[in-house]
Design goal:
By secondary structure, the protein is mainly β. The protein contains two helices and 20 strands. The strands form two sheets. It has a 16-stranded antiparallel barrel with strand order 2-3-4-5-6-7-8-10-11-13-14-15-16-17-18-20. It is globular, with a radius of gyration of 21 Å.
Length: 351
């Protein structure tokens, strides 16, 4: 009933409201766009604020390889993101993003950045997401390759050449460190992106220490390793009128000696096709997979449909089917999983 009500609400709103940006049905397609999804109300000449509220519902039906009966379970969550941008001078700005999530039941500082700008250059310092991976998706469920998303206190330098080429370099002190040392070392990340024309975009990024990722790959080892393992990522995005295709991959450059042999060199990839049926409706297909990523499916595929309500809201409903390698993943009771059917809905409202 809740899902039906949300669908009716967004469909009714879509009749009278038209999205600001042609082709944009969901309020965002990447985590970076999500952090900028607020409406940016100008309180003073130098201060703007905005926010994003989201409701999510998931239903999972697990299939077991030991012939145990399939088991279904559902859960729901809500989150609120608040952002503020201060520009006291034309060359300086500060950004603060706060987030509350019912899963953690606490208010967190998602990002806090102070930046200086000069022409095409920007120097930013503070708690921020590092330029590693883009994570395109038209689904309520993020792609498997989000295991590489990394946030830390860093100093980042970015250069934007005529909106056709972007270069980013960041240095930071991560959580990972060598087992035989008592002090942490400096790490870095590099990203290159290009937009040759309005239809094509591609990029590459490199992270010097994948143990610093938010997925805590070496959490059981207190983030200590015998050797540092880097991560690489690349994407290709093609847009032509009402159609969009994105391909992205992210993985470790070599194996972690601390992890089991079947999960010591994680890799994930994602391929999506989207069709914009109407300024307020689109549908998408996804095929993605992973190798060596703990408890993740070997192959996952499905479809999603999104409805837009002007500048203010979007509803996405998706279905995903997952296949797991034999005895690779298990539930909370250590029962081996071989497949999963997942239905999700996400309502996003910007304010």
């Amino acid at each position: 009933m809740v899902l039906l009500w949300l669908l009716v609400f967004c469909s009714a709103q879509a009749e009278s409201l038209v999205p600001e940006e042609k082709g944009a049905v969901r309020l965002y397609r990447t985590p970076s766009e999500q952090r900028e999804a607020g409406l940016n109300h100008q309180l003073t000449p130098w201060l703007t604020v905005g926010g994003l509220a989201e409701l999510e519902w998931n239903y999972d039906r697990l299939g077991y390889s030991n012939r145990r009966s399939n088991q279904g379970d559902d859960d729901s969550s809500a989150s609120v993101q608040l952002n503020a941008t201060a520009t006291p001078w034309s060359f300086a700005k500060g950004e603060l993003i706060l987030e509350y999530d019912t899963d953690t039941d606490r208010l967190d500082v998602d990002e806090a950045i102070a930046a200086l700008e000069y022409g095409a250059w920007e120097l930013a310092a503070g708690r921020q997401y590092l330029p590693f991976g883009v994570f395109f998706s038209h689904f309520a469920n993020g792609p498997l390759l989000e295991f590489g998303e990394t946030r830390n206190t860093a100093v980042a330098l970015a250069y934007d050449y005529d909106e056709h080429f972007d270069f980013s370099l960041a240095v930071y002190q991560g959580q990972g460190q060598k087992a035989d040392k008592n002090s942490k070392q400096m790490d870095w990340t590099l990203a290159l992106e290009a937009w040759p024309n309005d239809s094509l975009s591609f990029g590459f990024s490199y992270l010097s220490d994948l143990a610093d990722a938010d997925s805590d790959l070496l959490g059981d080892d207190n983030h200590r390793y015998q050797r540092r393992v880097a991560g690489v990522s690349g994407y290709l995005l093609w847009i032509n009128g009402r159609y969009e295709i994105s391909a992205e991959a992210l993985g470790a450059t070599r194996s972690f000696r601390e992890l089991d042999a079947d999960s010591n060199q994680p890799l994930a990839w994602n391929l999506e096709f989207a069709h914009y049926l109407h300024p307020n409706v689109d549908w998408a297909l996804r095929v993605e997979g992973s190798d060596g990523l703990e408890d993740a499916p070997k192959l996952r595929y499905g479809a999603a449909i999104s409805f837009r309500a002007g500048r203010y809201g979007s509803l996405t409903i998706d279905y995903l089917h997952s296949h797991f390698k034999h005895n690779f993943a298990s539930d909370d009771n250590d029962n081996p999983i071989n497949q999963n059917d997942q239905v999700s809905a996400q309502l996003s409202v910007a304010f």
